[in-house]
Amino acid sequence: MRLVASALQLAVAIGLGARSAQAKSCYVARIPNGGNVPSVPAIGHTDGTGRSSATNVFGKAFYSAGKAWTKALCMADSDGDGQTNGQELGDPCCEWNVTTNNVVRWTVGVSHPSDATKISDPSLWANIQCSTGTT
């Protein structure tokens, strides 16, 4: 009986772990280059891995934005390093959309939007003309 209970507890724990990992990949997919920030698989978490449920300033902003990439989140500078979240994540014009336009301007050279010691190279967007929306 004890073996059956232990096996059941293990199955539940594995199921919850898989569910948690699935949710994380869902959030990564909702952010441009969410999975391309060097050495940081979970950019919204303080530990950078997602093992901790504690969120950093970008994670809190993402949560406040309804767990979606919005123009306001894109234009914000979550870490105060002088670059917008969009510039750091390859979406300097805030055009990326998870369902209608999931193409980013670049995938190499992105930086962490919650780490002020890491910035993207401004030459990546120096020659990009962003539409103001008023044509």
UniProtKB/TrEMBL annotation:
InterPro entries: S-S_Temptin (IPR057626), Temptin-like (IPR055313)
Keyword match Transmembrane helix: no
Ranges for domain Temptin Cys/Cys disulfide: 22-114
Keywords: Signal
Record carries keyword Isomerase: no
Entry superkingdom: Eukaryota
Signal peptide: 1-23
PANTHER family on file: EF-HAND DOMAIN-CONTAINING PROTEIN (PTHR34737:SF2)
This protein's name: Temptin Cys/Cys disulfide domain-containing protein
Organism: Phytophthora sojae (strain P6497) (Soybean stem and root rot agent)
Biological classification of the source: Eukaryota, Sar, Stramenopiles, Oomycota, Peronosporomycetes
